[in-house]
Amino acid sequence: MDESTKKIALVTGAGSGIGRSVALTLAAAGWAVAVAGRRTEPLEETAEAAGEGADVLCVRADVSDPDDVTALFESVRARYGRLDLLFNNAGTFGPGGVPLEDISYEDWRSVVDVNLTGAFLCAQAAFRQMKRQDPQGGRIVNNGSISAHVPRPHSIAYTATKHAMTGLTKSLSLDGRPYRIACGQIDIGNAATEMTERMQTGILQANGQLAVEPVMDAADVARTVLHMAELPLEANVQFATVMATSMPYIGRG
């Protein structure tokens, strides 16, 4: 690919799971990809998996830390000069199976800081870059969740942040219009990652029973993100839901 036409992507939470799968899919499609996460070693594993010819920049960053986010985007600008795509993917479920009344303030705050504040900080930095670059514009894809629509039992912090992500997506989409900044959201259900391993051993349902749930390959999610990313800026997938076909989402509860 001509270096002058190469598209530049930044993927947060790229050391594992969906973030890694999306980063690898983008790299295989010819994108230059900056991968960010809290730990350097998993990011380097992602870069190695992309192959020798891939253009991958690894940047250790905690998206809940404003200084880390500033340094992350400065690193991307120093290496590539522009940014065409932010995949706002970093997230945490928080303590699993803890009743609402037993959740500590610290646990609540840590989920909000990563899932919501981190997404905002990265989107804000992406806006600043995309507004000033020439040609102007770019795309932000937020990782929502099925939990942006319906909760699981004992998931109040995660569910609240994912509902808030939908509001963030809508505001970004509106505020980005004058600057050719498109924003969409992908809501994912039961992709096979470290976070969903418990789906295959039994997870609490709304009726109080434990049930094994089907999962899908994270690569199926990544292909959808690639499609969203490669649309012209005149077109946007505002919301997409990609889920394991037989998971209990339609009719959950």
UniProtKB/TrEMBL annotation:
SMART domains: PKS_KR (SM00822). It comes from the Bacteria. Residues 7-189 form the Ketoreductase domain. CDD domains: SDR_c. GO terms for molecular function: oxidoreductase activity. Keywords: Oxidoreductase. Transmembrane segments: none annotated. InterPro entries: KR_dom, NAD(P)-bd_dom_sf, Sc_DH/Rdtase_CS, SDR_fam. Belongs to the short-chain dehydrogenases/reductases (SDR) family. This is 3-oxoacyl-ACP reductase.
